[in-house]
Write a structure and sequence with these properties.
By secondary structure, the protein is of the alpha/beta class. It has 8 helices and 10 strands. A 5-stranded mixed beta sheet has the order 1-10-9-2-8. Strands 5-4-6 form a 3-stranded parallel beta sheet, sandwiched between helices. It has a two-stranded antiparallel ribbon with strand order 3-7.
Length: 233
């Protein structure tokens, strides 16, 4: 931990924390500051002018990253019959019904996304105490409750990620690996910003985007210039 703290402190000393950067310059700065011995994830944090206490200002959905995530996504699917076969053919890691529910109840949640056909939600709903705290509960808003499970599996495997506001009105989304080319990371950042702009709640007045920051797994945050990304302040 001490070594990590020293690296972080060294990184902070190498740039102006208050300066705002274009998305490309920000990505290149993050890359230059990286010192971890593994391929770090780049995360975009958006501070939005929403009130999460109001149900009509809570954001939750998914967005496809054009350059992918660079991370293997494990997908579990609740389905039966033809839908189960389609999910398997699309690349789902685990497919089942009662048997999958039993695995989850036993503590096996070694996956990143859970998808379910609508007819399976009665069964899946009983697993809420296990799946809910882990952010794995299927939800129509995120496309994880669907009759077209093959499409959903393919999308999540190829770079679709979930976003949601936290209690402070922030959204955190992984946008790729530092090993990606800068332009690939910028395209992912732009896709997330465009999606957040698209779903701006009608009830929000005044400034919507308050701050955009990117950071690597082990590094400090770098502020992005809102104007460079063409967002409405």
């Amino acid at each position: 931990m001490a070594q990590k703290g020293k690296r972080y402190s060294d990184s902070v000393q190498r740039y102006d924390k208050q300066q705002q950067h274009s998305a490309k310059n920000g990505v290149e700065l993050i890359k230059s500051l990286a010192s971890a011995k593994f391929d770090e994830t780049l995360e975009l944090a958006a501070r939005l002018g929403v009130d999460p206490r109001q149900s009509d200002q809570v954001l939750r959905g998914t967005v496809s990253l054009p350059s992918g995530t660079g991370t293997e996504v494990r997908v579990a699917v609740f389905a039966q019959g033809e839908a189960a076969q389609q999910a398997s053919e699309a690349g789902a890691d685990v497919v089942g019904a009662d048997d999958l529910a039993q695995q989850i109840e036993a503590g096996n949640t070694d996956f990143d996304v859970v998808i379910a056909t609508p007819d399976m939600m009665g069964m899946v709903g009983k697993l809420g105490r296990v799946l809910g705290p882990r952010g794995l509960m299927p939800n129509p808003k995120t496309g994880t409750v669907t009759s077209d499970v093959a499409k959903a599996v393919s999308e999540f495997k190829s770079g679709r990620v979930e976003y949601r506001t936290d209690r402070q009105g922030n959204v955190h989304v992984p946008v790729g690996k530092l090993s990606f080319e800068a332009d690939a990371l910028v395209s992912n950042i732009t896709a997330v910003v465009d999606e957040l702009s698209r779903v701006r709640p009608a009830a929000v007045k005044g400034r919507y985007f308050r701050k955009l920051t990117i950071s690597a797994t082990m590094g400090p945050g770098v502020k992005l210039d809102l104007a460079d990304l063409g967002v409405n302040r």
